[in-house]
Amino acid sequence: MTRRWWLILGAGWSWGVASAQPASVTLKNIRHDFQALNNCAPVTAMTLLGYYGASVTQAQAAAVMKDYPGDPQVTSLELASYLGRAGLQSVIRYAGDAELLRSLVAAGFPVVLQQRLQRGSNVAHFRTVYGYSAGQFLISDPLLGPSLRLSAQRLAELWAYYNGEYLVAFPPARAGEVQRLLGSDYSAAANWQHLRAHGEQDIKARPRDPYAWWGLAKATLRLGNAALASDYFERAVNLGVPTMYYLYRQEAFEAWTQAGRHSRTLSVTQRALQAFPRSKELQYFRTLAGRAVGQSGG
Fold it and tell me: Quick one: 91 and 28 in the same domain?
């Protein structure tokens, strides 16, 4: 039996336990479709629902999930909400690793990753892992095809852009299996502690990596320290987070709003909205900041 250990700061040691895994696994009934523009989330929904026996087309999913035709952003939460309408339960967690992916796939659960599209790209992209063999993973990619193979090293490199975010969808009757496989990470609070510990290690190893700072900042925010999280987000921004990143992730604006740094939100959202003027998330945080500044007389 193999064990996956991690340190949960302030709470001692915790672990997830997985049975010995087969050397290779390929899940069956994985549907694929090549995505229309910005449609990786609808295709991912089609793939997951098809695996669990429901039929939906890319176009049908897009009509529900997107705010308008061509909307470039569907969040993991929106994907989970759509899957929930079809009766699937989802967990979204961070600081995932290759061993966890193998454990989930071996148990019959395809895993959705939020990753960088490719090296050097700033585009975020959903991919579904449904198999593995020695040193590599088998992936259904809405853009690159139904049988993309990535080495564990390349997968981790692309995954760091989103701090190891993953989504597992499953029928509610199988929740106990997912809880056993995730161990402590099944708890959202414990997973934020895991991400914080992971982030602290990452910034020591890569102190000029803006995405490592962002992950640490997000965990710190979710654990209740908005002031410190604001400082960490500032570090990430100053190290060079690309404008497109704000289309996908708005946690910095959450932290700055809670910490009263409204002028910072106004400055960054102004730049981001020039590139993505229809983003409802960016509009929301800019409106909040504008109201706060107006009320304070600033």
Answer: yes
